[in-house]
Design brief:
Blueprint lengths: L11 H33 L4 H50 L2 H6 L2 H43 L5 H44 L1 H6 L3 H54 L4 H42 L31 E8 L10 E8 L4 E6 L5 H6 L9 E6 L2 E2 L5 H7 E4 L8 E2 H5 L8 H10 L3 H5 L8 E2 L8 H14 L4 E5 L7 H14 L4 E5 L3 H4 L4 E6 L2 E6 L1 H7 L1 H9 L1
The chain binds thymidine-5'-triphosphate and magnesium ion.
Length: about 575
Amino acid sequence: MVKLLRYLKPYRAAALAAPLLMVLEVVMDLLQPSLMASIVNDGVMKGDLGHIGLMSIWMILAAVCGLLGGMGCAYYAIRASVGFGTDLRNALFRKVQTFAFRELDRFSGGTLVTRLTNDVMQVQMLVQIFLRMLIRSSMLFFGSIVMAFLISPKLSLVFAVSLPLFFIFLYALLSKSIPLYRTLQAKLDRVNSVLQENLNGIRVVKAFVRAAFEKVRFKRANEENYEVGLKAARLLAINNPIMTLLLNACIVCILWIGGAQTWEGGLAIGSLAAFITYVTQTLNAMVSLGNTLMNISRAKASSDRIIEVLDTPSSMVEPATAPLTAGTPSAPSAPSALYGQVEFRHVFFGYEEGGEEPVLKDVSFLAKPGETIGILGSTGAGKSSLVNLMPRLYDPTEGSVLVNGVDVKSIPLEELRSQVGIVLQQAVLFGGTIRDNIRYGKPDASQDEIEAAARAAEAHDFIQSFPEGYDTQIGQRGVTLSGGQKQRISIARALLARPGILILDDSTSAVDLRTEARIRTALRDRLQGSTCFIIAQRISSVADADRILVIEDGRIVAQGNHAELMVSSEVYRDIYESQ
Ligand code: TTP
Ligand code: MG
């Protein structure tokens, strides 16, 4: 947890001021019972009105000072902790942005949401409690013992019995509650995950009339969360009555022993009253220390989860310096002979490290600049996995991928991805206008550029048919687009940046054949000199490619152009005939 303290650094002034002001409040609190004792002993008992008046003024002054201290402390503690929480959340968000696909596969969206919101909140609360309560409680605890001892060393013997009792009770409570809080956080995670999955797939849920099933699933997650929460609350609930019982027992003892002493004249009545107040303060401080410990344990579970995210390194390691080889991608404006070339050298790849079967096995091929490469294969053959290696969404487990004749691992990611345009198999659009979606990768694109890209993707016409054209809002509260329309906007988005290498992963699967043919022609015109990879299910989509790679079970089983493959590859002929 100490690791997270560095996020408190910018707020160290406030984090220092808060406890200092708290010291003021506690000292004033500790003074009050003594002033009270003085009023009773020297004022009331002796009938000295002047003394009562003087002491009352002192008491009011002390109360005002204490109040100012307390308010100041609260103010600075809140400032420090809220600032801390905000910075921490930002740091987490930045971290998640650096994650490669591999890390994103590992942390589900639900758990990241919980970690960024609730977990940060827990730690933020702890910082506040720490700055206020911990200091207050420990000072009150020791201060009151000392003050009580000063009044009557003999009566202070009650501490010898009551403190160990309290201690044992608190220990028992904490050892039960700490594991509970850990479980509670995990249950909350589950609730968030189920909710998020449901929301992402709400259309499927409806289409399959699975709402009832989903309700049960959510209810179960929610109830588990409730049960653990209830258990923790129950534990806390017995805390107070038992503490009060112990406290009252102490007071009875003090009155019994102290009362006798007062009767015999060994102890002034005012001092007895003050003593009781100090004992109450001590034991209350102990309860609140116990609560703080509980909060610490709860926040510890959260901070572990936060640190886990912060400490997960991105599996994509950026190269230290840009390569200086020929065809260096840092000068895309001056393409060398290798610009746009893609080469796979004995590539193996699997999603789980050390997993059983790799998804790609010994894949080698060379795509020359400007070539159009079709990729064909049955579902699950590894086509998407193969192309995802080019913009380095994943790294191969063995072998190497070269772009422009340079290993992708030695090209800065941003540069690589600005050259390799990919239209992912699943078209993802963001809430906002169509224009914003198309220029997502190039925010400064002009309207002409946007339109040209949309025309090439055969999207311009249907966009124009909307009353608001390119300003049409899509997503959350805007119009909903058809699958084929979404695909075409995704293609336009990739085309806008005029990438040297363009990958279309099954990107026209939802587009009719005629439109698809028009897109192909437009692409050819627009991307003169660019290397294109087209993954498709239909042979007609790739028949005119320079070369077609036929993938089966993670291997390239045949390659060549349509005519060659018809002669040489049985698999290809099979696919052709089946269509
Ligand atoms: P893909 O490369 O996704 O197969 P594909 O693109 O050829 O299939 P489709 O035509 O349906 O798009 O998957 C290859 C294998 O890798 C498959 O067995 C599933 C597995 N896989 C994972 O284990 N984790 C993943 O995240 C993905 C995407 C695939
Ligand atoms: Mg795929």
